[in-house]
Here is the input.
Amino acid sequence: MKIATKMNEQNLKPFKKGQSGNPKGKPKGTLSLKTLLIDYLRSTDKGQKEANKDRLIKRIGKLSIVNGNEQMIKLIWNYIEGMPKETAEVNINLPIPISDVIKDAGQNAGNTENTQEENVSEDHGV
Here is the structure.
């Protein structure tokens, strides 16, 4: 039990200042997934006449238009036009106009005779 506790405590200690958690880092020349996918789409598979990107576009077109896949249609539309912007209208109906509240606050600014209880009862109409 003591060994497991010690190991857990060591795992919880932060790195020393200036020390990386991954000192070797990513090896130089390593390509990202995005780069690999772009390279693949630009290439042409053996036995094919068209580039992979052209075949992909035809496949997406078939799924969306010929097969009528609504999810694929929405996906394509969102990539072309962007996601629809959503708006919301907010209406706040105050029991009294805000100008009256400001006016009353200015008039009562020098009046310190009201206690907190009186202010609370006034606010709630009690």
Notes: Confidence is low (pLDDT under 50) at residues 115-121. The radius of gyration is 33 Å.
